[in-house]
Design goal:
The protein is an alpha+beta fold. It is built from 21 helices and 13 strands. It is elongated.
């Protein structure tokens, strides 16, 4: 909705529009209280020149009302707004009545008074009051649609009514047959209150109609005053002032004596009322520069929402066309893109130009938001540990979606040479540039460590730890880059450099950590380095100890390199079995190993996992042991219980491990197991008894325990 500050007076500036109705009421009250000053002025019995002021005043008021009514009607039809349509019908009825009253002025167009001269104005004011009051109602959407649907019927009906009334009055046909005594025309319409009537029934009906009409105008003025407080505009201020004046005028028409001061007053009031409204329309037009938005402040809320949607849709369409033109679409002509919208909404040439500039600014703003969003998204991708190629491909996809008119390509340094992989290209398809110029530009960017540009080709270096790592190449067919785009692309290259450096660093740390500690511990430390602090917590775990039986004897026969190679084969198979069950390998101790379950990751079935891992270890090394005949086999012990789990050591060096009696007992069980056996104690068996087959071995005495320990030989784990 178009509004201008100059056309929207505040509540304090509304007093000029209501002071005239107040003065009119005061004048009418004085004339009623002091009838001796309500003197008779030259009237119908005077010369024709004496009635010329009457003709001019009423004709001017009628012409102004007709002009405003036609403008309102056009606005109401165009916007399908019930309120403005009803207002237009009210104003047009009043305008028709005034023009008929002017044409019937005695001794101007015809000799003597006509009946139309007497009844035209009061009848017009009554009909207009009905439409004006209806426009002030809060119509439901269904009622509003009904008014819009019946607008032609209402307009045609009122036109036919006035045509018939004028014809009957002019020809003095029934019910207007017979001459009227000129002196009777001087009686006020409310004279029945004083008993001065020839036909009391007719006079009483006229009185009731005029009083009711005055009330309807007052009601409309009150309603429009409330609307003005919510949205102060010059048209609303004039409308509420006009309704107040019409309320006073309607009473004045009934009380004023013909050709007296009180009679002339309502003529002036009508001219002032419609003059105010016409002036507000003219002022709004000059402020807006167009007739279309003059009555925007009068529209119903449903119409306002519809107009806003139309404006939004038109602006979105204009923005889209500007974006397509910027991308080299099918809108290559130089015609103003805002012209169509200006014609659609009745904008002036200057307003259309302003709208187009605003749409261009909005299009550029959206582009910038998209491009900034791409930078944020690339930054988020770099926070995830992922393969370098995948990261760069995702970054290129995000960048090409933000810069839709550009082609992106990334080259990486490999063996001191810049290599452009086919998978690192994205965006629009453009012909290859001059190879020599491109190579020179790449060399300049890499040597100087800053962007190099030639026409629509921009080369931006990528760095890792301050050293050249690659190049981001951006090309566009539309020529050199705008300054704002150039800075965004430099930021993009910087973000890519950070992402590339982070990815390579993550990969190095991840590889390094996972070679020296459990994968779960490495992942936890990378995500939260504070977990490397000394200390721990007591939790229930299952501990697996495995030791190669006969390894000491074997070491006497093998050379150190052969021994290490054999151990690596054993531990490779054993470690895989533990990791497959989610276990954490705590440490390798010569020919022994220790693994934890339910630490650091939570595992409700940790005892069962430890049992499956122990049997899997025995199966995994069986082929290795069988290759050379009598080779070592693991003796394994598994125990479940509480232990202190955490980082143990010093500030200089530490180890993630578990300590406590549960760990010690697992080691003692392992020492009693023969090669190929897996021993578990009663605490572990209690957790897995529904899932395993065992052979009870009774109670045995182990080192460090005063009481004997119940032990079971683990045979199998049921599927």
């Amino acid at each position: 909705m178009q509004q201008t500050v100059s056309a929207a007076p505040g509540p304090r500036r509304a007093w000029p529009w209501v002071i005239v109705p107040a003065l009119a009421i005061l004048t009418m009250a004085v004339l009623a209280i002091m009838p001796e000053i309500d003197v008779r002025l030259p009237g119908e019995a005077a010369a024709a020149s004496g009635n010329l002021p009457h003709l001019v005043i009423i004709a001017a008021a009628g012409a102004l009302a007709m002009a405003v009514g036609l403008l309102m009607g056009e606005a109401g039809r165009r916007r399908a707004d019930a309120r403005v349509l009803l207002l237009a019908l009210g104003v047009l009825n009043a305008a028709t009545a005034l023009l008929l009253h002017a044409l019937a002025t005695p001794n101007i167009l015809a000799a003597g008074p006509g009946i139309g001269f007497v009844i035209a104005t009061p009848v017009g004011l009554v009909i207009a009051a009905i439409f004006v009051a209806a426009s002030a109602l809060d119509l439901s959407p269904a009622q509003a649609r009904l008014v819009v649907a019946w607008q032609e019927l209402l307009r045609s009906g009122t036109l036919a009514f006035w045509a018939a009334l004028g014809l009957l009055a002019l020809l003095r046909l029934p019910p207007f047959a017979g001459a009227t005594d000129p002196e009777a025309l001087e009686l006020p319409l409310f004279a029945c209150l004083l008993g001065r009537v020839v036909d009391p029934a007719i006079q009483w009906s006229a009185t009731v109609a005029m009083l009711a009409s005055a009330g309807l105008y007052a009601y409309a003025a009150t309603r429009y005053l409330g609307r003005f407080r919510r949205r102060p505009t010059v048209v609303l201020a004039a409308l509420l002032g006009g309704c107040a004046l019409l309320a006073v005028t309607t009473l004045n028409v009934g009380l004023g004596d013909t050709w007296h001061l009180s009679w002339w007053q309502w003529h002036l009031l009508l001219l002032i009322a419609f003059g105010m409204i016409a002036f507000s329309v003219l002022r709004q037009y000059r402020s807006e520069g167009s007739a279309r938005p003059i009555f925007d402040s009068l529209y119903m809320e449903e119409t306002v929402q519809r107009i806003r949607q139309e404006y939004s849709g038109a602006l979105e369409s204009l923005v889209g066309r500007i974006q397509r033109r910027a991308e080299g679409g099918d809108l290559a002509d130089d015609a103003p893109l805002g012209g169509e919208v200006a014609r659609q909404f009745g904008l002036s040439e200057g307003q259309g130009a302003v709208l187009e500039r605003a749409a261009e600014a909005l299009a550029h703003e959206r582009e910038q938001i998209e491009r900034l969003g791409a930078l944020v998204a690339i930054g988020q991708e770099s926070s995830v540990i992922q393969e370098e190629l995948r990261l760069l491909q995702q970054a290129l996809g995000l960048a090409s979606a933000a810069f839709r008119d550009a082609q992106f390509q990334i080259g990486l340094l490999q063996g001191g040479r810049l290599s452009f992989a086919a998978g690192l290209r994205s965006g629009v398809s453009l012909p290859d540039p001059d190879a020599a110029q491109r190579a020179d530009l790449h060399g300049q960017a890499m040597r100087e460590g800053r962007p190099a540009e030639a026409g629509g080709l921009l080369a931006l270096p990528l760095t890792v730890k301050g050293a050249p790592a690659g190049l981001l190449e951006v090309r566009r067919a539309a020529g050199p880059f705008a300054e704002r785009d150039r800075w965004l692309l430099r930021t993009l290259a910087g973000q890519l450099s950070v992402s590339l450096e982070n990815t390579r660093l993550y990969q190095q740390i991840d590889l390094l950590f996972r070679q020296y500690m459990p994968a779960s511990v490495a992942t936890a430390l990378i995500a939260d380095p504070s977990q490397a602090a000394l200390g721990g917590a007591v939790r229930e775990i299952s501990v697996l100890f495995g030791d190669l039986r006969g390894f000491t004897t074997l070491s006497e026969r093998l050379s150190p390199p052969e021994l290490v190679a054999l151990l690596n084969r054993y531990y490779g198979a054993a470690a895989q079995a533990v990791l497959a069950e989610g276990g954490t390998i705590d440490k390798f101790m010569g020919d022994a190993m220790m693994a934890l379950f339910n630490a650091p990751a939570n595992q409700a079935d940790h005892a069962l996992r430890a049992c499956r891992a122990a049997l899997a270890m025995q199966r995994a090394i069986a082929p290795i042991a069988a290759e050379a005949g009598d080779m070592p086999r693991f003796g394994i012990g598994v125990n479940s219980g509480e232990a202190l789990v955490g980082n143990i050591g010093s500030e200089a060096i530490r180890n993630f491990t578990a300590i406590g009696d549960t760990v010690n007992l697992s080691s003692r069980l392992q020492s009693r197991a023969e090669g190929g056996q897996v021993l578990i104690n009663a605490s572990t068996y209690a957790l897995v008894r529904e899932h395993v087959d065992v052979q009870p071995l009774g109670e045995i005495q182990v080192k460090g325990k005063a009481a004997p320990v119940e032990v079971f030989l683990l045979l199998s784990v049921r599927p």
